[in-house]
Amino acid sequence: MMLLWLLCLAGFTLLSLAMPRYRRLFGLRHLSARAERIWRLSGFALLLLSLLLVLQRQQLAEDLVTWFGILTMAALLVALVLAYRQRF
User: What are phi and psi of 59, to 5 degrees?
Assistant: First the structure.
């Protein structure tokens, strides 16, 4: 479960840092359009990988509920960090 959560967290982090607004927030350099696309695709790939790992058990209903719960916790952490960073 921890691996799945870390994959989701990394995926959402890459998706958020693919946006110029959040890169500026953390003082990261400007990326080319190609690099932004790579970061965005990498984020989606990590989220898809986490889904594929969850679906290994062959219990579709339980696995989807688990995956959405893990996605929610990872997205909440990324959103809280971004909101906190904007205020301070």
Answer: -120, 85
pLDDT computed for residue 38 by the predictor: 97
**E strand or H helix that includes residue 88:** none
Q: What are the domain boundaries of the chain?
A: 2-87
Note whether 19 and 30 are within 8 A (CB).
no
pLDDT in tens, 58-79: 899 999 999 999 999 999 999 9
- Is pTM beyond 0.70? Reply is yes
Q: How many angstroms separate the CA atoms of 17 and 25, rounded?
A: 9
Residue 18 structure tokens: 């693919």
Quick one: average pLDDT of 52-61? 90
Whole-number Cα distances in Å, 58 to 26, 50, 61? 40, 15, 9
Neighbours of 35 (CB within 10 A): 12
